[in-house]
């Protein structure tokens, strides 16, 4: 045994595969490059090798692991692990049953188990600490490396497993996520994967192709190690001011003059009903709209100065196009406002919204009451079309649902209704291997309530909720790291609500309300006097 099995560092777990080696490398050169640069566990997983060849390979890899003092695991083959005295075995759900593996290996060897379901966590908790030492949680994302995987679970699926470990008091069990993990998504996975009470996060990540197929495996490993050590994910530039004495009104003034100066480009992927109105709202706020569903230009648009994406899932854009756009904005750390229209109204929408939610990090998630309750898994009703569904809901319950969405998706969440709720679950982008969110829990999520009295006519025109998304996107497009995302979003919500209230008093009916709404947004934006706005904000 290389070390005490309870002190294994699981942070960067390499699983081998000799079928994907680049030219001029060997299985051993790739593993050694990984070991030299920070791999902390190696698993020999050679699916096509005969027993003799597998043993020969495993013996050579054991020499390397011993040299770098890193534990060696064997995939599936308990006999091979015993024959070469490896440090342990990793088995899947369809392999040898865990109690048998433990009986054969004895108490001191490491046993890893592949887990994708909460019931499997319940089983390992029932067995107790003597059986499973760590679990490989996955498959997180689709991967070419393993074809017969279960449905990808995304970071929310990993979070469910971590919560189940916490709920079942399986504190001894370490965790690594596996499946489709690459530098493009690892920070986001680490940031979003934590248990419901914030006490647990992943102990590490397991990769195959990112190292084994890399032309420079050493550089690939260093890159992964860099991300693991970073401890924070800045999906847009972090707020540079920790505490400010400025009043909310003076911050709002700064936000508006930034938007005015920067004239952000608001890339809309939105439904047809909203497109024209959204474009006019964008223009009224000193910004430029572009309604583009062209996949090949998403990255170019994201890279334009002060670009922000409004993603409204009522659109009919092809899913692949939307995924590309999300990745493009995440790559250059530009804001994305996500509006999951009719989140769970149909199975199709639920699948689409969940697919997109697992595909990116959103700066703000905005929804009506029905959408936010469904996203928080707190809805008592099925959604009725894209309508909010849950009309009469206790305000405390709504605040809790908004905080839950903010917390679960590590975002700023907005719930619209007679009063709007805004919650900030970003915790400054922090993540830490194995330590949860530095003990941040749902109770630590700040939440604000924006009141302005009822504006029923808002619900009688099309796309009024969608255009709040547009307003938030315009404000985030002008983002200035001296003012937090939470405050920037709050400014947008207050402006929109105040404009709605004033427009309702000026209009003669629903058609002129829409016209007055755009006029009022324009005027309030130009005046930039938030102290005169009617919307009031309070802490919940
Ligand atoms: C660390 C880690 N996690 C999961 C797996 C997958 O194991 P399994 O389900 O047995 O599938 P195969 O690897 O046998 O294809 C793993 N190998 N390592
Ligand atoms: C072995 C395994 N188990 C679940 S996914 C997977 C393969 C992961 O490979 P990659 O890191 O190349 O996506």
TrEMBL record:
Q: Which organism is it from?
A: Kazachstania africana (strain ATCC 22294 / BCRC 22015 / CBS 2517 / CECT 1963 / NBRC 1671 / NRRL Y-8276)
Pathway-wise, it operates in:
Cofactor biosynthesis; thiamine diphosphate biosynthesis; thiamine phosphate from 4-amino-2-methyl-5-diphosphomethylpyrimidine and 4-methyl-5-(2-phosphoethyl)-thiazole: step 1/1; Cofactor biosynthesis; thiamine diphosphate biosynthesis; 4-methyl-5-(2-phosphoethyl)-thiazole from 5-(2-hydroxyethyl)-4-methylthiazole: step 1/1
Looking up InterPro entries in the UniProt record yields: Aldolase_TIM, Hyethyz_kinase, Ribokinase-like, ThiamineP_synth_sf, ThiamineP_synth_TenI, TMP_synthase
Q: What protein does this entry describe?
A: Thiamine phosphate synthase/TenI domain-containing protein
Q: What is the protein's known function?
A: Condenses 4-methyl-5-(beta-hydroxyethyl)thiazole monophosphate (THZ-P) and 2-methyl-4-amino-5-hydroxymethyl pyrimidine pyrophosphate (HMP-PP) to form thiamine monophosphate (TMP).
Q: Which domain of life is it from?
A: Eukaryota
Which UniProt key words apply to this protein? ATP-binding, Kinase, Magnesium, Metal-binding, Nucleotide-binding, Thiamine biosynthesis, Transferase
Question: What would you give as a GO molecular function for this chain, any one?
Answer: ATP binding
Would the keyword Flavoprotein turn up in this protein's UniProt record? no
Q: Which family does it belong to?
A: In the N-terminal section; belongs to the thiamine-phosphate synthase family.
Which reactions is this enzyme annotated as catalysing? 2-[(2R,5Z)-2-carboxy-4-methylthiazol-5(2H)-ylidene]ethyl phosphate + 4-amino-2-methyl-5-(diphosphooxymethyl)pyrimidine + 2 H(+) = thiamine phosphate + CO2 + diphosphate; 2-(2-carboxy-4-methylthiazol-5-yl)ethyl phosphate + 4-amino-2-methyl-5-(diphosphooxymethyl)pyrimidine + 2 H(+) = thiamine phosphate + CO2 + diphosphate; 5-(2-hydroxyethyl)-4-methylthiazole + ATP = 4-methyl-5-(2-phosphooxyethyl)-thiazole + ADP + H(+); 4-methyl-5-(2-phosphooxyethyl)-thiazole + 4-amino-2-methyl-5-(diphosphooxymethyl)pyrimidine + H(+) = thiamine phosphate + diphosphate
Tell me the ranges covered by the Thiamine phosphate synthase/TenI domain, including all copies. Answer: 12-211
Q: Please give the Pfam families that the UniProt record associates with this protein.
A: HK, TMP-TENI
GO cellular component terms, A-Z: cytosol
